[in-house]
Write a structure and sequence with these properties.
164 residues, alpha/beta, three-stranded parallel beta sheet, two-stranded antiparallel sheet, 37% helix, globular
Length: 164
C-alpha cells in the first residue's frame, strides 16, 4: 500500500490508476509512518520534526511543528536532543507527523502503539478517531487490540495476505 515494494500478483490502484503511474497525487494522499521513528539523535525534537515535515513535502514551519508537538505532549521537550528521549517519547515525536498530515485521507501506520504509555495510547486513539470523523482512514498493524469506540473501527484480520 505504501508503494515500497512491487506486488507479487495483480496491481494496486489509486482512483483506478496503477500506483506507479499515479505519481504525486497518490503520494500526497497518504501519510506513511514506519516502525522505525526516523529521528536524528543529534537534532532537537523540533528540528527533527521540521526535517521530517520538509522531507514529506510540508513547510516544516516552527509554529506548525511546535503545535504538533504540543498535541502529542512534547512541547516542553522541543529543544531537547532526540538522543535524550525515551522510546515512548521518540514514538510521540514520530506520531506528531500525523498532526501535520491530518489532511491526508489515508494513514498507513506500522505498529504506531509501540512503546507508548497509557497517555500516549489515548492520544493516538484520539488522533485516529478524529481522522476517521474527518472521513479519513488508517491502515495499521498492531499487536494490541484497538480500543477506539467513536467511531468504531472496521478491523480486518490478514492471514497469508488474505482478508479473513
Amino acid at each position: 500500500l505504501a508503494g515500497l515494494s512491487t506486488p507479487a500478483e495483480g496491481e494496486v490502484t489509486w482512483g483506478g490508476v496503477p500506483l506507479p503511474e499515479a505519481g504525486e497525487g497518490w503520494c500526497r494522499s497518504l501519510c506513511y509512518l514506519a516502525h522505525a521513528n526516523a529521528l536524528k539523535d543529534d537534532l532537537s525534537v523540533l528540528e527533527s520534526l521540521q526535517f521530517l515535515a520538509r522531507l514529506h513535502g510540508h513547510a516544516g514551519d516552527e509554529s506548525g511543528c511546535a503545535e504538533a508537538l504540543r498535541r502529542v505532549g512534547l512541547f516542553s521537550r522541543r529543544h531537547a536532543a532526540v538522543r535524550t528521549l525515551s522510546q515512548g517519547q521518540r514514538r510521540r515525536v514520530a506520531l506528531a507527523r500525523l498532526q501535520l498530515d491530518a489532511a491526508a485521507p489515508v494513514w498507513i501506520l506500522d505498529e504506531p502503539y509501540d512503546a507508548l504509555d497509557a497517555e500516549g495510547t489515548a492520544m493516538l486513539d484520539a488522533a485516529l478517531s478524529a481522522h476517521a470523523k474527518r472521513g479519513g482512514c488508517a491502515v495499521l498493524t498492531s499487536h494490541i487490540d484497538l480500543t477506539l469506540a467513536d467511531p468504531a473501527p472496521t478491523v480486518l484480520q490478514l492471514d497469508g495476505y488474505r482478508v479473513q
